[in-house]
DNA sequence: AAAAGGATTCACT
DNA sequence: GTGAATCCTTTTG
């Protein structure tokens, strides 16, 4: 696309600031992807975060440079995709939970083995399967090929709520979503 | 070397 | 809305 359209997001900012800024952003991997409609922030001093307790071989990527991918295996079955933020050494990231499919939908259908577009990327494990994200991408930059990040094409209204599927710090309202999107993994109760 | 713990998904009621 | 499966990765001894 045009070189002037670099993303207006400072990934060295705190996760809770980067997360809502990512709503509406276009994310693709090898041309397959769409608009981010749901994310969650996970910060360094957050008991629910993999970063909590300090650096380990597994989470070292999140302590590395921002704007990189942190991918991990969930429940032994699914991949989950995060974008690292905050300065190196801090340890924080934003979990991408849902995407509105826009590009390469047929590829997504094949990978997911289903036709229902609404369910192709509605969930962290699902969107990784649809985009083809695996450990291979962990530690790579998200703003360079084969990834591509483009600014939101139109103004967005961001809604907030408690995070999903965690056992600790459930109260922290660090889940962000695109208001009224039908591609959310679950609806917001507000 | 072994054990424990999931930032989930799917199917069913 | 509820319950169960499912397999890997990380962590610890």
UniProtKB/TrEMBL annotation:
InterPro entries: Formyl_transferase-like_C_sf, MPG, MPG_sf. One of its GO terms (molecular function) is alkylbase DNA N-glycosylase activity. Pfam families: Pur_DNA_glyco. CDD domains: AAG. GO terms for biological process: base-excision repair. The keyword DNA damage applies. It comes from the Bacteria. Keywords: DNA damage, DNA repair, Hydrolase. Its EC number is 3.2.2.-. Belongs to the DNA glycosylase MPG family. PANTHER family: DNA-3-METHYLADENINE GLYCOSYLASE. This is Putative 3-methyladenine DNA glycosylase. It comes from Nitrosomonas stercoris. The lineage of its organism: Bacteria, Pseudomonadati, Pseudomonadota, Betaproteobacteria, Nitrosomonadales.
């Amino acid at each position: 696309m045009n070189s002037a359209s670099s993303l207006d997001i400072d990934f060295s900012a705190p996760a809770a600031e980067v997360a809502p800024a990512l709503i509406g952003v276009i994310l693709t991997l090898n041309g397959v992807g769409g608009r981010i409609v749901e994310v969650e922030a996970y910060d360094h001093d957050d008991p629910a975060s993999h970063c909590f307790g300090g650096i380990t071989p597994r989470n070292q990527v999140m302590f590395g440079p921002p704007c990189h991918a942190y991918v991990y295996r969930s429940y032994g079955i699914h991949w989950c995709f995060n974008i690292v933020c905050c300065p190196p050494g801090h340890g924080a990231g934003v979990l991408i939970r849902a995407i509105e499919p826009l590009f390469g939908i047929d590829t997504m259908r094949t990978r997911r083995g289903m036709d229902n577009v609404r369910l192709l990327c509605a969930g962290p494990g699902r969107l990784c399967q649809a985009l083809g994200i695996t450990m291979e991408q962990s530690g790579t930059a998200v703003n360079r090929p084969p990834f591509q990040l483009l600014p939101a094409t139109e103004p967005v209204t961001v809604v907030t709520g408690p995070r999903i599927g965690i056992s600790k710090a459930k109260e922290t309202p660090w889940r962000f979503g695109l208001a009224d999107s039908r591609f959310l993994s679950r609806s917001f109760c507000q």
